[in-house]
């Protein structure tokens, strides 16, 4: 699914929202996730997964054409770890409703 397909699906599922509003919502969510990762923060979406930035140390690589050693600087790369519910749904497991906590009863 592409970003435009996601926007179209959300707009169809929410007819009370205009398409430009849905585009703004999707763009804002992606921008906030990107900004948080750039700051080094972790973004967790319960039931879906967690985005984080992993650090890769500097290393010596090789030029594949010449075999010459090349210095590769350290960097941060985005990483996604799927949540349990997402893994189960993708692997064809049972589709369960999200868990809800039991209602809190007042003590007598």
UniProtKB/TrEMBL annotation:
Classification via Gene3D superfamilies: IHF-like DNA-binding proteins
Q: Which UniProt keywords apply?
A: DNA recombination, DNA-binding, Transcription, Transcription regulation, Translation regulation
According to the record, the residues making up region (Disordered) are: 82-108
InterPro entries cross-referenced by the UniProt entry:
Hist_DNA-bd, Histone-like_DNA-bd_CS, IHF-like_DNA-bd_dom_sf, IHF_beta
Q: Name one Pfam family in it.
A: Bac_DNA_binding
Keyword flag Lyase: no
Matches recorded under SMART domains: BHL
The question of whether Signal is a record keyword is answered with: no
Q: What does this protein do?
A: This protein is one of the two subunits of integration host factor, a specific DNA-binding protein that functions in genetic recombination as well as in transcriptional and translational control.
The similarity annotation says:
Belongs to the bacterial histone-like protein family.
Assembly and binders? Heterodimer of an alpha and a beta chain.
**Listed name of the protein:** Integration host factor subunit beta
Organism field: Pararoseomonas baculiformis
Q: Which gene encodes it?
A: ihfB
